[in-house]
Each structure stands twice: as structure tokens, then as C-alpha cells.
Amino acid sequence: MKDILVAIDFSKGSTHALEYAIEIANLTLGNVIMVWVDNQSILEVTLASETSELREDAKKNLDELVKNYKDKLKPGKLTYKIRKGKVYQELSAQAKQCECTMLVAGTHGVTGFEEYWIGSNAARVVSYAPCPVITVKFNYEIARGYRRILLPLDHTAQTIQKVHFTAELAKLSGADINILALNTSKLRTMQRVVENNVAKVEKYLNANGISYVVDSIMTDNVAASIIAQAKNIDADLISIMTDWQNEVSVTILGQFAQQLVNYSPVPVLSIHPKDNFIL
Q: pTM of the prediction?
């Protein structure tokens, strides 16, 4: 795995996300790149000196973060980038530029903290990022590591696309995978499609020597059922797809994915669907 990007706005949530990113980087032997985005519009800035002072303050804070956390990143390096523009667009651009393996962002959920930009931008960050994104709540216990990863599977063809990346994390961390078969229809035909997806994933995990268990549920509230299962098995990560793409190939965070990003107490790994995918 390559570099990990982490969104920084100097809130408690983003510092927590940095600590989380460092833990992952220590597993993957990667580097961590912090990104701060100056998202002030021209209308919000009355003097050029204000922009200069803001960026200088940001640089000082980033230097302080490097000083405080560089020794916690064992094999890799901790660096930072300063960008100007819309938060989600600049994070996406930086992720493409450095070909990052993943992006980590803190989130406050639906409660806000609008004085910081990560909480209000989490859904857009996930939607626009060119790589997998892990969103993590500011109060999540980082030292847990990965012991159990929840992998929900439904009837869609895209649902198995998250398996490659999830399995790689599981292999690096020694985590078990809990496959959760999600049945939203009582039609036996639809249930067989879910079973077929589960069978494909089981075959892949067996071939790669990854330990797993399978649970199956009937549900009319996908997000709530996934969160309940995560709590029930004491999961350390939930792996999901971001649902679908629009006509200009920008991934849209669908209803269930957005609910999970907002409400899950467990970190959520969001992966975008791709064309011509083969498991």
C-alpha cells in the first residue's frame, strides 16, 4: 500500500483522524500526508494580508503536528500540503497527485461543528475522492486496531467490489471478516443472488487464507441493521460501497452509505464502484 492522505482542519476530529491514519500507516508501512485547505472565498477575505496570515498560522500548526507525531509513524514519513479551494475538490486533487492508497477524514456526524470544515464536508470528501476513504468519529478508540471487519453484501453486482481492499487490510492486520448477507426482499430469486455473492466472497477469502464467518439477516433498514451488527460483533471497521456514479463519473454517496458515514460509531471504509471489475 502507498501513501495515506489525512484531512486536517485543526479540529479535535481531524487530529484524531491523523492518529488513526498513523496507526494504519504503521500496518501498511506507508507514509502519511496531511492536507490543509484554505477554503476562504474572495468575499470572506477583505485584505490580502489576512490570507497570508491564515496560511502562516496553518503552516505553524502543521509544523507542530509533524513535530508531535512524526516519531509515532515508525517506518514512514509524516509530511503536509497546503492547498487553496473547495475542500473536497482539493483533497481529491491531492489524492490523485500523490496516488494515495486511501484518505482518512474525521467526522462529527450530523451534529455539525460548522466552524471546522471536515464535519460538514465528510460526505463530499467520500464522494469525490479517487481512492477508498475511511471516516472516523472523533471519540473512537484508536488503540483497538483491526480485529473484526464487517463486510455487508447485498444483491447488487457492485457489492463484491470492496472485497479486494478489505481483504488486504484484514491480511495486514490479522483481522477476521464478518460477512453480513443483507436480504431486503422475501423473493427467493433475490435471496439466491445474495447467496451467490456471498459464495464468491467466501471463495476469494479461502484462497487468500483469511478467516471469516457468515451471518444472514432480513431487513428493511439497511443502515440500521449494519450498525446493529457492527455493535453486536464489536467490529473495528465497516466496509461499504458508495452506491453509484452519475453521468460525469463523480461518485454519489447514496442514502445508506451517507447514513452509515453520519451515524456509525465504528470507522467506515467507503469504496467506489468500478467498471469491468472481476473478483
A: 0.89
| 277, part of any domain | no
Q: What is the pLDDT of residues 57-102, one digit of tens each?
A: 999 999 999 999 999 998 899 999 999 998 889 999 999 999 999 9
Q: Are 94 and 190 part of one and the same domain?
A: no
d(CA 4, CA 189): 41
Cell of 117: 470544515
Confidence check: pLDDT of 276 > 90: no
Question: Can you give the residue range of the structural domain that contains 263?
Answer: 146-271
- 157 shares its domain with 197: yes
11 and 81 in a single domain? The answer is yes
* 107 occurs within a structural domain: yes
Which one of 100, 117, 142 terminates a domain? Answer: 142
**One-letter amino acid for residue 61 of the chain:** N
Closest CA to 109 of 253, 269, 258: 258
What's the pLDDT band for 139 if we cut at 50, 70, 90?
A: confident
